[in-house]
Structure formats: C-alpha cells, structure tokens
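Mods, move this if it's the wrong board.
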Amino acid sequence: MNQFNTRNLALAAASALALSIAVAGGASAQNATTTLRGSVYDGQTAEAGATVVATEVSTGYATRARVGADGRYVLSGLRPGTYRVQVTSADGQTAEQTVTLSLGQVGTLNLDVAAAATGQSTAGATELGDIVVTGRRVFEVRTPEVATNVTQQQINNLPQISRNFLNFAALAPGLRVTEDDTERTISAGGQTAQAINVFIDGQNRKSLINDGGVAGQDDSRGTPFPQGAVQEFRVISQNFKAEYEQAGSAIITAVTRSGTNEFHGDAFVFYQDADWVAQDEISRRRGAEKAPVRRLQYGASLGGPIIQDRLHFFGAYERKDEDRIAQSFLNRTEYNDFFAADLGTVSTPYEQDVFFGKLSWQIDDRQRLELSTEYKTEEDIRGASGQNAPSRAARNNGETQAFNLRHQFQGQHFLNEFSIDYLKSSYEQSVINGSDYGREYVIFRDDSTTTPGFQYNINNRDSTVFTAGGRADAQFLQQKSTTIRNDLTIPDLAWMGTHTIKMGAKYSMQNYFVQKDFGRNPTFVYDIEARPEINGSRTIPVAVNLGVAVPPADVDNNVIGLYIQDDWQITDKLELNLGIRWDYEDNAVNNDYRTPDSIRNMLAAIQNLPGYDFPSYFNPSDYISNGDRKAFKGAFQPRFGFSYDVFGDEQTVIFGGAGRYYDRIGFNFAFDERFKPFQFNKTIYFSNAGGLRGGQQTIAWDPRYLTPAGLDPLLAASPGAGEVFLVKNDFEPPRTDQFNIGVRQKFGRWQTALTLAAGHTEGESAWNIANALTETGGRFNGPTPGSVGFTQFRNLIFFQNTDKERDYKAIYFTADKPYNAEDRWGFNVAYTYMDATQNGSRDNGYGAFDFDYNTPGQSPKYRSSTDERHRIVASGTLGLPADFLLSGIVTLGSGLPYNINDCPSAPAGGPNICWNAGNPEKRAFFPGFNFAYRQVDLRLTKGFDVFGGQRVEFIADAINIFNFTNFKSFDTGFNNARYGAGTEVYLPTRSFQVGLRYSF
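Not the wrong board. Structure tokens:
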C-alpha cells in the first residue's frame, strides 16, 4: 500500500523540522511579521563589521543583526510597529533612525555613520525605501506581491456597522465583501469564498468542513475575531509567496495587538436603534411593515507591562447583541386568510461574545515568546421569514477556541520561528419547535396538458406556498486541528548578489466531526388548492416525509506542508523571488472509506444490463474504494516573482510573477459519500380512501397519523431509500495558476500601481449524474438502482467530477496616500476590471450539483457569478477643525450577473437558460456616472482630550447614507413583464449608529 500512515507522516514532519533547524536558517513568517534590510555606509564606503539594533519603541524589545562584508544587513521576524534603528560601526561611530514598519513588508533603510558623525541630520526625511520614517507610513515597492495593507488607523476610523475587520478587505483590488442578514462572504479572483484563506498571527483559519473560506464565518452574522485585538492586516490579491497555503484566490493575514511599556486601554459602545434603519425597497413594494434591526455592541481592551522591557500582556473583549424583526409573508396573497395566524413579524435575536488574551515575553536579546488565546461563542435565531412561519425557526450556535504559542530565536546568522497552535471551531443548528410536526403547503402542476381534466402526479409540484410547524433538519459540524510549524531564515548570503533563503515545515493533526439529522421531524405535505382530483381538502395531507438517523462521521486527517524560497537581490535594482511549496493530506476525501457491497453490486448490475453501459466519462472502478485510496502527492507549487527598480530610487518599479496554488476541498463534500446512501428518507402517501392515487400507492387518511403513536408504525413499515454518491479515487485538489505584471509609481507621498492579472483554475468538484442514458443527454432516463432490484437507493447516481474550469483576467489600479498626523488626511482608491468565466455547475458551495449537462465539458463557457466587471472602492479620512474627524467609504460596482430564463439565445443542446448573462440596471451615482451597486458610508468623530492623556470620542456612523437600493436577485424570466426587475436587495439599507469610545 502506497498511502502514508499517521506514524509515517509524523516521522516525515519531524524529520523536516529537524532538517530545517540543522540548516542554520529560517523563514521570516511573513504572515505575522515584517523585515527591515539595507546597507550601512561610512561616506561612500560600505561599512563592514558594524552592528544594527532595532528596538521596538513601545516595548523595548531589541533585535540585532550583523552587517556583512558588503555593508548589507537584514533584520527578519520583526513585529509591525515603530522601531528605533541604531547602527554602531567597528570604530564606535553611530547613526540612528526611527521608522515604522507594516505587516508583511520588506522595508529598506540605509544608514550612514559618517553623516551622523559630522552632524548631518536626517530628521526631515519623509521616506526611506519602503518604510515609514519619523511616524510616516510609506509603501513597500520592491515586491512581486499584489498586496494592500490596512492600518489600525483605518480599522478604527473608517465607517462600519458590524465591527468585523474583514469588511475592510474590500479596500484591496480584486476582492468583494458581500453582506446579507445571515452572513458575510469574501470572494476574490473570480472565484467563490471557499478559495480565500485567513491567517491570524500565523495561525491558519481556513474552514475545513463547510463553505465560507474562514472558520466560524459561514452562516454567521458576527465576526470571526475581535476587531479591537487586530493591530493591522494585509490582503494579498495575487502572487503570494511559498509560505502561504490552501488558497487559490487571495490571502488575508492579520497580526494582533500586544501590550507595551505603558498601560493602554479602551472601552467602547455602539448602538443602533430600530428606527434608524430604512425599510428595504422590496418589502415596501409588498406593503409590508418595516422589519427593523436593533444593535448594541460594546467591549474593552487593556494592555501593559508586567516587567518593563520584558513581559507584557494584552486582553480584549467584545459583545454583540442584535435583534432583527423577521417577516413571514405570502407571495400568493389569495391565501392570506388561511395563514393569518402565521403571518407577520417575529424577533430573531443574535448574540456573540469574543475574548482574546496575549502574553509577550522578551526572554533575552535573542529570544521572544508569545502565547495567545481566543474564545468565541454565538447564538442566532433564524429561519422564520419569507414563506416560513415563526414556528419554523432554528437555533444556530457557533463556538471557536484557539491557542497559539510562538517562539522566536535570533541566532548569529539565522532566525528560527517555531509555533504550535490549536483551533476548534464548531457550528450547530438545532430545531426549536421539535414537538410540532412540519407542514408544507404546495401547488401541484397538471401532469398532462393534452389530457382533459387535471392529471394528478404527486411528484409534479409547481411551487411551495408556505411552510409551518417544527423544522425537520439539525446538524453539528466541528473541526479541530493541532499544528506544529517551523519557519527559518538565512539572510544575507552572497553569490551573484545577496540571497535570503527561507524554508519551513508544518505538520497538522486535524479532526472533522459531522452529524446531520436531516428530516428527523415528520413533515406533512398539503394541497393548498384543495383540488377535488387530489383530496379536496387543505387539512388532509397527501404525504408525510421522515428521515432516519445516520451515525456521524468522525474523521482524522494529517497534513504536511513544506516550502523553500529564495529572495535574490541580483543588483540594487533587480530582485527575483523563487520558491516552491508542497502540501499533502492523507485523508482529505474519505481515503480510508470502503464502498459498501450493496453499492458495488448495484453498479455491477446496471453495468451488466443488456444494451447498456455507463457513459464513457464514468467508470465505476475509478470510484469503488477498498479503504485504501491513494492520497494525492503531487501538490508541488512553483512560484516566481520579480521586481525591477527602474531608476534605483524606489520611485518606479516594474514587477510581476507567476505561480501555482493548490487549495483544498471542504469535508462537507466527501461526507455525502458516507452519509447519503444511508440517509433513508421515508415517504408515506395519503388519500381519502387509499389505493393508487397520483402515481403512488396511498393509505387512507386517519387523523391519528398526526400523533407519534399513530404515525410511527407506518414509518417503521416503510423501507425508505438513500442516494448514492461516489468520490473519485484519484482525486486531486483544485489548483489555480496565477500570472501578473505591473508597475508602481510614487508621486511624492502618493503610491500608485497598475497591474494586469490573470488566473486559470482547474479541479473544482461537483456532483454529476452517472447513470445517464447517453453520453450527452438522458440524465434522468437511464437505468435506476430500483430497476435492477436495489430499491434502497433512489433513481439518480451521483459521481464526483473535477473537470470544471475557471478563467480570470483583471486590471487593478490603486492610488494611496496614507493618513498622518501632520496634514491630517489620507485617501486610497482601488479600481478593478475583471472578466471571469467558467463552465460546469452554477452552484458556488462545496455541495455543487449539475443537473443540466452530463459533464462540465458539455456545458457552455459563461460568466462566473462573481464576475463584477467594474468595481471602485475609495476610502478617506479628513481631520477637521475642533478635533473632528470625517471618514468615508464609497463603493461603486457594475453589479453581479444573473441568469436569463426562456433565453432566446440559449446554447443549443441544453436548458433554455443563458447562465449569468443578465446585467443589473445601472442608475446614476451622479450625472453620467452610472452603476448598479452604489453605497456611501460616512463616520464623524469628535474627540476630547481629558486629563492624564485620556481621550473620549463621540462617533456617528451613516451607512448607505443616500439609501441606494442595491439588488441581489432579479426577475429572470425573459418573457415576463417585469424581466430584470429586482426581487431581493443587499444589506444594508440606510442605517445610522452612534458610539462612544474612551481610551487612555
């Protein structure tokens, strides 16, 4: 057997770590630190033998570096912050600068001991390379990455309602943050939210089971991390280096705040009243009452010294209480009287608590230790809205626990960073009204328009009008991981220039627990039209559905990641970034799963039918597993980048790169192979007198069947049926190849960049139909499991297909002038033009299906659902007289596409649909400047300095101040009178919020 076992994986990881440590070097953990480099001169001569010391001003932590024979030095592993950098030459001459470094950047600072000795001052300098000097934040320019840094000034002062720092990821080109009343998603590079990854202090926060990309963010109104604990973060839209993992589109990496030598703290409260939220356009059209939302958010943070210059602490707590009013209503208003008791509004509260704590210990001048922990809990009541009665509500609970221990050792010629972290994230959806059976009211379609009278077929339903009673589904999902990581750097190696060699290894022990109790509460189906051809009644059901209990999945997965990278400064103008990464998972897609004999025998029986064989794209032997699926070992990811400083003054830099990036697939997908065949959904059909009705054998209705005592014997006698899902034995995870080239140009304090970007993605998974009648059609007409005697399975057989492809082309333009205390204003703008196309399934989540084409290769190429052709995000902050501060964000977009049904230009051979071919109507932002998506957010802050360095700020937020209506769904029927009209809106509508913040 070629598959690695757990012991072999552990040995491999330990060997890789030991080898990395044995080689005197390590990778600066770019996802949590920054680097300062430069040259030391004595006049025009390179100064060899000097010592450079960078002391963090706020903590007194010192980091040392040697100066090489060529006068160059590298200080790796620095926390983002302000540093006093001092160089001392061999003969005692010194020079000093104070600089501020941003997260993930490589700053350049050249020092001249001769200038200091002769009294020449550099105090008036405003920029040195890529760093902030004397408090001014200047940009990194010599990097192939397409990256955007979001500072604490922006996080604290830009307007928002929800205190989720990830909202500001929208400031980066190529990213889109989408909000509705149940969750927030971030997409990038023409891909779905699953393709991003988030790191907090180097800890991987990837969602390993379900959708959303970020653990704890899917299906959540809250924040994955307390905003008050975030110091700053960095968004890498393209060409991220080899130390980053498990993302195909973009990386978001954040660093947390630490305590300092002075006690600092703050406390805040934000409030939004229900009357301060405007009614949305759709409910206003419907004549419904406004469904307001009330929010209360409060919290505090505190940090300071335990031992001056050595040991510091920091802690933060945030609380969110939200009360939305959900509306239950009918689209078919002729039935309002029947459902009168179930219509109207109901409160759906949400609450979240998030804690964060951190200890930072400078053991000595060479060693630093950090220990941090986070705990988050949330509860949300939802599901009681639209065509669902309040009794349908469900309770969603989320919980996150995280620990992170990081050790940094600065050797004479290397930096070693070791970490061990733990993450547990769980999501639970439970039924609130489980004692009440469910009720679904439907309209049946005439099964034959050519036969006189109404032809009843119980499976031919036109629509569901309303549902009431207890919800049927519950689930619990939990991911756990313990990860050991080592990153090492060997700086300043000389050979045809200067090399900084980075290498790293990680070993992660992961566990996925998934329990799904679907259909566990009986749901009765009623004919709302009370047709005499059916039962002639709205109170006699036509059927009842119930799912059987299925054991949970409890799966272990071991993950290894290795990388090496060379940042090669060939000349003072040209730098190459060469790297390669390898990732491995031993149980990503049920590698230890054995296909049950019943499924094997069923597939063989269909394959042996006279005159039939499965289509050529499905070979059962490629999917039948004996419990020894080979794990994919080919995830080698070469990455290349370059930057060329045209004039050697860091004003004009040409950059570019290319790389391969393997992502992963959430366990929710592979879980269906284990779960669906045994998820027997039992259905019992009813009629007035029993017998054959609507194509099914029925039982004469008796009201006692509404009780457990009456219904249970019927359900026990019903065999039920599951569905067959088959995972590919030689599965490869999705991969993206990225390419970009661009130019950066400084204009004084402005930094601009123009980038041409492209990407090609292959290997996304979807469920396609295996038992089609022909190669190109007959998806619902092929032989079924029941036709060969396997009635325990439903008609369709689903197999994993990974032929889906995406293509992405984009132009990014950014201009940024940072805010500073001198001129008291800052502004940045990011423009994105994109062209994102794909084939295959239109579904965006891990559980994607394709019922329209036999394979992705047979589907047309069409626009991706995330393809917003034009998007502009501008933000700024302006200091006003009397200590007022005005900030704002303007978001403009051409809107996301929608499908066109009954499309006259639909491709031949498929459904009469043009996928994502409709464009939302554009409206004026100002004359001649039209967009489908328009939003302007403002914040006004008034500060008061009080005694002892304390400060009080009064804050007022106006979100979507002009109350622009931004539609998210549309009437898609080409022949409809209201074709293209909006049917659902994005949040927020115009909303006001007030806040108070106290700091010292």
